[in-house]
Specification:
19 strands; Uridine Diphospho-n-acetylenolpyruvylglucosamine Reductase, domain 2; 21% strand; 3 domains; 5-stranded mixed beta sheet; globular; 18 helices; Ubiquitin-like (UB roll); alpha+beta
Length: 476
């Protein structure tokens, strides 16, 4: 376990310089860099939604450093031990602007300038990663950055030109990282193995577990709660691995969403499409499947998906004992799960057979990207256009927990999915759930959207494209 000996401090590389500082567990990277005078990194929302706080973080991988973006406003500074943090002040090499900076100037991509450093960092990371000069790459890269005055056209143009320009990577730091002994202050424990994690949970009763922190850190930045001690699971190797065993794809709870996009590229196009709408690139670089489950949120995007895929959660306690639980049985109430006080989410097991079956995932939200679901629908059907032999129907955002509609599934199995059956099961939606009304959507909207999603999934399963519901008034 990485901890700091008495008298020593957190060490990381910041813009090619080794930085040593002391910090509390819940101090954010944004606070730290601004206190060091690097005020180009801004706070806009303090929740990872606007991207004004975007920085680049590099981690050693073999002989190279791989960079990705994160939201500094919700990232504990102590998680950066042994890493290279780059802010907008660290991009310029001597008198030479980074291509992302140069093209933002040339394309007039800034007006008020408040959001500009975040956009520059997102574009610069694409350049550092050698991303292809494609519009979709740029749009994904800046999906977590908001601009309210310039508009996105010149920013996208700047991104494309920066990716097209000849570029010799000016950002150094590999030598510094290789020679840097990484220390972590005792307020954030960083186990690297599961036995170390189990020991940390036993020794630090009541300490919060953190992976990406994209939800947990909102307790600090939005609700002003103090977290004196955190246990960081993002360095536990076995929780970062993915493998296939006994007919299931086993995903470590600390695997970031960005890696899942690559993992599922050849396995589930619907899941990858959903992931592109889950948060932003910055959020997906940090957020994890395990965290999305453990926080118990009824509007989390992945639990309905995992229910539809018949996934199971592996929970492990401090004695190293594990138990398996279906995703629907994991949730007991609003923000209440079956996770014991001495347990952690270790792995998610997804049957490969489910990934081979027909499945669809639909998300309704006010904004296309980086937004919370109003309704999340997940569907899996087996059989043919002549008979459905298996069905799983799940929703999120409708109640205090993710919901699985067993009655609808029973009505589908053994039947031919013709227009009459589709109309029948779609009409059942209103009686199977009592959706809530809140700032995101009315109960009527949610009910109508859930019915429309089920209809769409069944029509796609049968190969039809005609609507059964001809008139639905949707009022958010």
């Amino acid at each position: 376990m990485k901890t700091c000996p008495n008298g020593q401090e957190l060490k990381f590389v910041l813009n090619n310089q080794v930085v040593e500082l002391s910090a509390s567990a819940d101090k954010t990277l944004l606070q730290a860099v601004r206190e060091l005078g690097l005020t180009g990194t801004k706070e806009g929302c303090a929740s990872g939604d606007c991207g004004a706080c975007t920085v680049m973080v590099g981690e050693q991988s073999g002989d190279e450093i791989r960079y990705h973006t994160i939201n500094a406003c919700i990232a504990p500074v102590e998680q950066q031990a042994g890493k290279h943090v780059v802010t907008v002040e660290g991009l310029q090499s001597g008198d030479v602007l980074h291509p992302a900076q140069r093209e933002m100037v040339n394309c007039h991509g800034s007006q008020c300038g408040f959001c500009t450093p975040g956009f520059v960092m997102s574009l610069a990371t694409l350049v550092e990663q050698g991303a292809p000069a494609e519009r979709e790459e740029v749009l994904q890269g800046i999906s977590g950055n908001l601009c309210r005055c310039t508009g996105y056209r010149p920013i996208v143009e700047a991104g494309l030109k920066a990716l097209q320009a000849p570029f010799q990577q000016p950002i150094e730091g590999a030598g510094l990282l290789q020679s840097l002994e990484s220390f972590e202050a005792t307020s954030v424990l960083q186990p690297t193995t599961e036995p170390e994690l189990q020991a940390a949970i036993s020794q630090q009763s009541g300490a919060g577990l953190i992976a990406g922190g994209t939800d947990l850190m909102l307790e600090v930045t939005q609700r002003y709660q103090s977290m004196p001690t955190l246990i960081d699971v993002s360095n536990v190797e076995s929780l970062k691995s993915v493998h296939e065993v006994d007919g299931s794809l086993v995903i470590g709870a600390a695997v970031p969403y960005t890696e899942l996009e690559t993992l599922f590229a050849a396995r589930s196009e619907p899941f990858v499409s959903l992931l592109h709408r889950l948060g932003s690139r910055q959020i997906r670089n940090s957020g994890t499947l395990g965290g999305n489950l453990a926080n118990g949120s009824p509007i989390a995007d992945t639990p309905p998906v995992l229910i539809a895929l018949d996934a199971r959660i592996e929970l492990v306690n401090t004695a190293g004992e594990s138990r398996m639980l279906s995703v629907q049985d994991f949730y007991k109430g609003y923000r209440d799960t079956d996770l014991g006080g001495d347990e952690y989410v270790a792995r998610i097991h997804i049957p490969v057979q489910s990934l081979d079956a027909f499945h669809r995932f639909y998300k309704s939200s006010k904004r296309l990207e980086d937004d919370i679901s109003s309704v999340m629908g997940a569907f899996l059907f087996e059989g043919s256009a002549n008979e459905i032999t298996g069905a799983r129907v799940a929703y999120g955002g409708m109640a205090a927990t993710p919901v699985r509609l067993a009655a609808v599934e029973d009505a589908l199995v053994g039947e031919k999915p013709d227009a009459g059956l589709i109309a029948e099961v779609v009409s059942m939606i209103a009686s199977q759930m009592t959706p809530l009304t809140d700032v995101r959507a009315s109960a009527e909207y949610r009910s109508a959207m859930a019915a429309s999603m089920l209809e769409r999934a069944l029509l796609e399963f049968t190969g039809e494209d005609r609507p059964v519901i001809t008139e639905v008034q949707l009022h958010a």
